[in-house]
Amino acid sequence: MGVFRDGMCEAMVLRGFAPKTRTAYLSWVRRLVQFCRIAPDQLTPDHVRAYLLHLTQERKLSSSTFNQALHAVKFFFIEVLKRPLVLEGLRYQRPPRRLPVVMSEEEVKRLLGGAQSLRDRALLETAYATGMRLGEVTRLLITDIDSKRMVIRIEQGKGRKDRYVMLSPWLLETLREYWRRLKPREFLFPGEGGKKPLCVSAAQKAFGRARLEAGIRKPISFHTLRHSFATHLLEDGANVRKIQALLGHRSLQTTEL
Questions:
Q1: What per-residue confidence (pLDDT) applies to 159?
Q2: 58-65, long-range: CB within 8 Å, 24+ apart, which pairs?
Q3: What does the alpha-carbon distance between residue 93 and residue 91 come to, in Å, rounded to a whole number?
Q4: 10-residue stretch averages of pLDDT, the chain, 257 residues long
Q5: Is residue 126 classed as helix, strand or coil in its secondary structure?
Q6: Which three-class secondary structure state does DSSP give residue 128?
Q7: How far apart are CA 229 and CA 104, in angstroms?
Q8: Running DSSP on this structure, what letter comes out for residue 80?
Q9: Which helix (H) or strand (E) holds 163?
Q10: Longest dimension (CA), the chain
Q11: 3-class SS at 98?
């Protein structure tokens, strides 16, 4: 894409897009150009429509992935080609509304008991006891743990927002034991070599091993710890808006779901 790629990169940087979003948007536009086999500045709404139909009918993308592709192409037309993109009768797709799977407190205990190392247990306990997203847990620094105030600072979570979550006494005890034995220096859960955070796939594998050991057959993932944290707080009488703040949700409707 050459100059068009550079122009799109500059436009996204100026708009403050996150690195992952920039990578995804570039990928969708590159696939559009490859699909149509035409120079980027020669693209028309008909080309885009044919591409989107391909994504829907042949690739069978989920609604959220389809919407991201449409966002990317619209951004390219408006910000780089300086042309409006009018697609008659085509709208963003409405994603299906599904309730999240939640573990019971007994299942959470079994899962934590199934962790195969102290690091794995500390990782899973931190996710459940704070409701953090997977990427937020793996990026935690030692200095984010404030044992005097009994809070954990999450810096630049989803939506580029900082927030604090509670640090429970039992989680603090686990983290202290973990630190005494493994002595991480910068990242709370360092990756190989200790200079980078633990990769997401390694954390997911730790969850998978614990789930297998615990014998839990529900369709759960690492993110289920976050759903379970919120649900158990609600069942214990916590205010929904307090849970919203702890989760870092922009919309109260997301928290209520």
A1: 67
A2: 62/95, 63/93, 63/94, 63/95, 63/96, 64/95
A3: 6
A4: 88 90 95 93 91 90 90 93 80 79 95 96 96 93 95 82 91 96 94 90 96 95 94 87 81 74
A5: helix
A6: helix
A7: 10
A8: I
A9: strand 161-166
A10: 62
A11: coil
What pLDDT was estimated at residue 74? 92
Find the DSSP H helices in 94-158.
105-113, 118-130, 134-138
Q: What is the reported pLDDT for 253?
A: 73
For tokens 């994504």, name the residue: 55
Burial of 172 (0-12, 13-18, 19+ CB in 10 A): middle
What pTM was estimated for this model as a whole? 0.74
- Locate 225 and state its tokens: 């710890």
Rounded CA-CA distance 42/117 in Å is 56
Q: What angle do CA 82, 85, 87 make, to 5 degrees?
A: 175
Please count the residues of the chain. Answer: 257
